[in-house]
Specification:
single chain; alpha+beta; Aminopeptidase; Alpha-Beta Plaits; 6-stranded mixed sheet; 5-stranded antiparallel sheet; 32% helix; elongated
Length: 364
């Protein structure tokens, strides 16, 4: 087994399911693994506490150009393991793939970044590799990082099939509610049924995707709206006086979360709780130095250098919001992330190492 695959296997063996989910644990153990990797390779490293037992870990290699910093970031937490058909924390290699929870999202990218940093010598910019906590729930790791430090550019690992992603969708999630008047179900005319009112609202929301389809973005497609959860009523023989839904609205570059939320609250005229998640889209210009450096690295290795877009979000938008131009670039496909038999192609992990190292060596 190569050192790269040994590191990836070691990362997969550590349960780092986000604590917000069943079987989740604080990231302390996997961050100790990352910290030991840095130290065993003679790389300066330090921890940044976000919550107790839940730090970010940062490895640093100095650069030749004073004051220039390039950040490579991958999250170490994973989705939950319910319903998995393979042992989640027992990495298995077969058929050119490595299986296990987090293998694709994003321990493969993290392993490749770690080894790229260990191999790079005297890069132009100071290079940081950040193992970030809490991407799978509230993004607290990257937000804490951006509160304390800055950089000239960032490369974020997510499964992009080794495409350089410059545009991603943002997300807005909030609860909408309808209210009525409770009454005995034998005399429903004495009440006002909040579920019926919600049914009418749902039909209007279903039509939203037709409206959104008319304004597609060239890289990420149209914005979308999905109702993912619903609840209401107290018992079957009571006219319900309250019904709620949870809405997931994906934003395209050019849309502002606050403006979009205000539009729905005003246009539909029902109760809207403040958003539980609000994240701006990523919209890094193709002409940005980090996008050009990534394209040149991919081209040099015989890979597709064209800028791409994806419909999901990542930590990259938080870097962008902090004034740090970012791209998303990593091994694996989003189609394998969070799946019952999560896996990553070993060849892509090896190529990712080469791409990351080349960007480290050339970005100025």
């Amino acid at each position: 087994m190569t050192p790269l695959l040994a590191t990836l296997s070691g990362l997969v063996r550590v349960n780092s399911v986000n604590p917000a989910y069943e079987h989740g644990v604080p990231e302390a153990e996997i961050q100790r693994y990352v910290l030991e990797f840095f130290r065993s390779h003679g790389i300066e490293a330090f921890s940044q506490e976000v919550y107790p037992q839940r730090p970010n870990v940062i490895g640093r290699v100095p650069g030749r150009i004073p004051g220039r910093r390039l950040v490579f970031e991958a999250h170490c937490d994973t989705a939950g393991i319910a319903g998995m058909t393979i042992p989640p924390f027992t990495p298995e290699i077969r058929g050119g793939r490595l299986y296990g929870r987090g293998a694709c999202d994003t321990k493969a990218g993290l392993a490749a970044m770690l080894h790229a940093l260990a191999e790079v010598k005297s890069p132009p910019c100071e290079i940081w590799v950040v193992s970030a906590m809490d991407e799978e729930h509230n993004y607290r790791g990257v937000l804490r990082l951006c509160e304390a430090f800055t950089a000239d550019a960032a490369v974020v690992s997510e499964p992009t099939s080794l495409r350089a992603v410059v545009a991603t969708k943002g997300v807005l999630r909030w609860r909408m509610a309808t209210r009525g008047k409770a009454a005995h179900s034998s005399k429903p005319h004495l009440g006002v049924n909040a579920i019926y009112a919600m049914a009418r609202l749902l039909l209007r929301l279903e039509e939203e995707n037709e409206r959104l389809a008319a304004a597609a973005h060239p890289l990420v497609g149209p914005g979308t709206l999905s109702v993912g959860m619903i609840g209401g009523g107290t018992q079957v023989n009571v006219v319900p006086d309250y019904c709620w839904i949870d809405v997931d609205r994906r934003l395209i570059p050019g849309e502002d979360p606050e403006t979009v939320f205000a539009d729905y609250r005003g246009r539909f005229g029902v109760e809207c709780e403040p958003p539980s998640i609000s994240d701006t889209p990523l919209d890094t210009p193709c002409s940005a130095p980090i996008a050009r450096a990534a394209g040149e690295a991919l081209s040099a290795l015989g890979l597709d250098p064209r800028p791409a877009g994806v419909p999901y979000g990542s930590d990259a938008s938080k870097f962008s919001r902090a004034g740090i131009p970012g791209i998303v670039l990593g091994p694996g496909s989003i189609d394998q992330a969070h799946t019952a038999d999560e896996w990553v192609a070993i060849e892509e992990v090896e190529l990712a190492l080469a791409v990351y190292r080349r960007i480290m060596e050339t970005f100025e």
